[in-house]
Write a structure and sequence with these properties.
- With 272 residues, this protein is of the alpha/beta class.
- It folds into 2 domains: 118 residues, Nitrogenase molybdenum iron protein domain (Rossmann fold, 3-Layer(aba) Sandwich), CATH 3.40.50.1980; 117 residues, 3-Layer(aba) Sandwich (Rossmann fold).
- 41% of the residues lie in helices and 15% in strands.
- The strands form 2 sheets. A 5-stranded parallel β-sheet has the order 3-2-1-4-5, sandwiched between helices. Strands 6, 7, 8, 9 and 10 form a 5-stranded mixed β-sheet that branches.
- The relative contact order is 0.14.
Length: 272
């Protein structure tokens, strides 16, 4: 890192973009992932320099960043290229709710906005606790979260946790601990045997077709299908391990499970 706090930051995933906006530090961002859509103005304000597993290295280098923020082993190749080019990189790898909260605090420290980051993180923790209180004592439906359809992939850690916080029980909780998608593949027969009462689906990068889910062979008598409880959650709301998942993503799960949303999501920015 050439200076502290860094003045020129490139974010290669959405969640760090949204967090920096929430902290009022968006002027430090000079480049973003093509998947960054929150807040909406980011599409107009920031140049796009990457997809998820690929990046335009010459374009990033031309921006002369002080720091590049990445996520997960899937961007390890990009990280290696950037490091070889002499660029400072911080690679996040949060896979659960605690990790999301830690990411917010860490990012706040990186941009010298610790107090605002602490306030943001605490606000999310308080809101999660309020949601858990809201649903306590109510019936807990069995929930199958589908992250992909070919093959079927069940939900990752933070998704499973948010389902539980929202008052449901993930039918594949043991798989949620597996970080790699290939380790969360399930068979159609396993889903039938789990007999979910609600199906939540978010196919990263493409629209969910609920009728296709309902028409799968042998699924007609499944409680979720028989009762028409199949719901799409847009992938930017739930598959990015950041503020969106803790707010709009959680609210979407609450709605699908028949609960009202809980007020109190931070506004942009959280502090002046």
């Amino acid at each position: 890192m050439r200076r502290f706090p860094p003045e020129r930051i490139v974010c290669l995933t959405e969640e760090t973009v949204e967090t920096l906006y929430l902290l009022g530090e968006q002027d430090r961002i000079i480049g973003v992932s093509g998947y960054a859509v929150r807040p909406p103005q980011v599409r107009r304000e920031k140049p796009r320099v990457s997809a998820f597993t690929s990046a335009d290295l010459p374009k990033i280098l031309a921006l002369a960043p002080d720091l590049v923020l990445t996520f997960s082993d899937l961007q390890a190749g990009i990280v290696a290229d950037l490091v070889r080019a002499g660029i400072a990189v911080h690679a996040f790898n949060q896979r659960d709710v605690a990790g999301i909260i830690a990411m917010i605090r860490t990012l706040g420290a990186l941009v010298d906005a610790r107090e605002r980051a602490e306030a943001l993180a605490t606000s999310y923790q308080d809101r999660l606790a309020r949601v858990a209180d809201l649903v306590r004592g109510r019936p807990r439906p069995r929930v199958y979260f589908e992250e992909w359809d070919e093959p079927l992939i069940s939900g990752i850690g933070w998704v499973s946790e948010l389902v539980r916080i929202a008052g449901g029980d993930d039918v594949f909780p043991e798989l949620a601990r597996q970080a790699a998608a290939k380790d969360r593949i399930v068979t159609p027969e396993a889903v039938v045997a789990a007999a979910p009462e609600v199906i939540l689906a978010s196919w990263c990068g493409k629209k969910v077709v609920t009728s296709r889910i309902a028409s799968r062979a042998g699924w007609a008598d499944m409680p979720a299908v028989a009762q028409g409880r199949i719901h799409e959650i847009k992938s930017p709301l739930i598959l990015q391990p950041g503020p969106a998942a803790l707010t709009d993503g959680l609210d979407a799960i609450l709605s699908a499970l028949g609960h009202p949303p809980v007020p109190g999501s931070p506004t942009l920015p959280i502090l002046g």
